[in-house]
Amino acid sequence: MIKRQRPWGSTFYRGRVLTASFLLLTACLLGALAGCALIHTNGKPDALIQPDQIRLADDIHLAREGWPSARWWAVYGDPQLDALIDRALANAPTMVIARSRVAQAKSNVELVKAGSSLQVTALALLDREHVSANGFIGPFAGNNPALGISGPWYTEGIVGLGASLNVDIWGKQRALVAASLGEHNARLAEESAVELEISTDVAQLYYGIQTTYALIDLLDQSRQVAAFAVETHEARATRGLEPRTRVEEARAQQFAVTRQIVAAQTQVKQFRESLRALIGAGPDTLPDIEPVPLPQQSQASLPATLSYDLLARRPDLQAMRWYVESSFHRIDAAKAAFYPSFDIKAFFGVDALHLGDLFTHASQQINFIPGLYLPIFDGGRLNANLSGTRAVSNTLIEQYNQAVLDAVRDVAQTGNRLQDLDTEAQLQSQKVQAVTFVRDSAEAHYARGLGSRFTAMEARLPVIAEQAALLDINGQRLSQEIALAKALGGGYRADPPVELKPR
């Protein structure tokens, strides 16, 4: 037997070839890396508002100590109000929309997370194919059973499992997940902001109705006095004791009071319709609102000063901070898009041109495909994406800065107005006491026969007028208390504000 000798140096030659191939591949990779798209328009983040700006001026102090509680409206002890707000928070269309947005944001988080997980797909494919005699597999177009060729028609079958995995080397996918989580947290805060908006709107409408009820009661008293005046002047005019003009003047006053009552009743109806639309009640499902006395003294729990805590208690500010934080993560993802990406694809199954051979050992097919993708020339697409992402982030930063300044302004203006109304209420109460003394004196004179009943009745009008003025002040004060509770976040307390780190 003659042995065929291996050519001398073949091993060395092959080693040289492999070494050369490796060096060539390395050079290609280095060249591709050097030719990757470069970051040209990174930009700089806008400055965030400083904590020392989140405070009131030294000459503005809120009226009381502490912050509003979560169910801030419960301090008024009104079961009707409690039931209306609970119903609104459960069924109001705007609440349903807010919850839907939270659910959508949660789905987006799960969708983005899935992009970085292992993907496995079951595959079953049946292909009835006519082979072209002039194509790459032209020899199979013939019919030669001895060679296993039965063309030109074939029924190909593929059955197996395909898998893919995106290897997140540069953190692009992690940044997208963090961005989606930030948007989800922002939606949660927005849901709380909607709850606060609805609860304060319901309280404002409810106490608007109660204030108008009280005004109607005072106007009804005034109308009774006006009716007595008409009767008195009518009797005197009939006896020739005074001219008819006094009767018409009294009747005009009576009409004026009646018109005010009608206007107040119309206002109640408008408040009710606004309340019905707010809580999503049907034409016959809004319960009757019974008159109750207004809270005589402020029961709201309010801080003496304002500080960084406002960021944690205002849901709208929390939402803005989360949107800003999310934008930072999107910038990270836009930067990571400039770097190479790596993924792995695999397939295991069977593939055969004849269905009868499909599940045989010879038909097994295994594919393992690592892939490296390098952005080299993209026409400026990646830089445009980074520039646009940075611009969106800076816009959100400025919107957040303005929202903080507006929040401090709202607290300052509402708190200052509430203090002024407290002072006005005290002065007006003293005025009511003064005119009440005059009325009581006139009624005492009438009781002792020292004065007329007409004089005693007319002495009630100044008291009613001043009581109406005091009612208006108390209504405004109650409205400002509710507005201030809203400006302070209404007792909302989430986690501490996220620490914003621009990049």
UniProtKB/TrEMBL annotation:
SUPFAM superfamilies: Outer membrane efflux proteins (OEP) (SSF56954). GO terms for molecular function: efflux transmembrane transporter activity. It is found in: Cell membrane; Membrane. It comes from Trinickia violacea. Pfam families: OEP. Belongs to the outer membrane factor (OMF) (TC 1.B.17) family. It is a lipid-anchor. This is MdtP family multidrug efflux transporter outer membrane subunit. GO terms for cellular component: plasma membrane. Keywords: Lipoprotein, Membrane, Palmitate, Signal, Transmembrane, Transmembrane beta strand. NCBIfam families: outer_NodT (TIGR01845), PRK09915.1 (NF007390).
